[in-house]
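User: Second chain of the day. Same drill as before.
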Amino acid sequence: MLNKRILKYTFYFLLSTSNFLFSQVEYDFSGYVNNFSIYQKFNKSLAEEYELDNSQILNLSRARLRPVFYFGDDFRLNVEYEIVSLYKNTSSELFQTVPQKTSRQLFDLTWTPVNEEKFSISHFIDRLYLKYAFGKGNVTLGRQRISWGTGRVWNPTDLFNPINPASFSKVEKDGADVIALKYFLGNFTDLNLVFNPNEKIGNSNFGGRFRTNIGEYDFSVMAGNFENRIVTGADFAGNFFGAGVRGEGIFSADENKLDQNFVKYILGIDAQVSRKLYLMLEYQFNGEGKTNKDNYELDRLFKGEIINLSKNYIHFNSSYQYHPLLTFTFSNNTNLNDGSGYLSLIGNYSATEDFYLNLGTQFFYGPENSEYWYYSTSIYFQTEYYF
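Assistant: Same format as last time:
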């Protein structure tokens, strides 16, 4: 585990020697602050089973600082540093709330100086990478986001930065500690090679993705080794009679346990029906999931290792611009196997170009011990400010 002092000194060294190493150093600074005031209510049976309070009030604040340093024309250093404070009026906790090192991160760059029963303050570095651009590509070293896949809700081929669509307060995908090479082979054609080291080098993850374009469609194929499983996959995106269509999928194999091989894929379509109305539909088949809710891997869900428990899902989303400054978004996500799901309604108001107000709710439904039975119905008020 990387010592924070070593990280600090390394960062200072990069800054202090940059003028010597490069003729000119320029920088940009941006970021945002957002705040969620949340009321959550658990269903009565769940609260009794897990000894939770029936309801709770939370206040979640995030400040994300994003400096970028440019060393000449070819090098740049990106940093994204986040401070998170969380207040809860109860000690109830079912899902992980304090930021922690993920399985795709080699170094632990999180620390929580305040971690009381109802209040915590956490700091973490979510992006820290050096990027070198050369004639036909670039090399990136450090904690970064790897953007694979075409899905709007789920990304089966994104084995580095998956995110649970039910987590409305999760703003950014977690960064992964990787070495990445992107080589441009022509217009709209490139090869992306990624190595994600593990403390045990034999357990490291690695993969490659080839992407190209044919007509109005983008295609890509990928393959690699993730969590000691051999994974192959593909994705596409394009236009079909005025609508956008997309799909992606993987085959994940364990050569020693053939009964644990699985397929995962999505198919989606979206369209700007009118100047004000947007519609989207996406289906997911999750071959890693279980058809019987008694076999759900709840411990992996609560730890954030997986984002879904069952096999078949459908997600519908619609967005209507009531006024140039006011937009309403409605979505419904349904587990087709156990009948559970959630409804979401959000009103977004653009107070200024940099300041936004959002009022939203997530209502979860389903029979006892179904997937979304474990989530809490929430009403929240969000403020966002970008600088």
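The longest strand covers residues 25-41.

User: Great, on to the next one.
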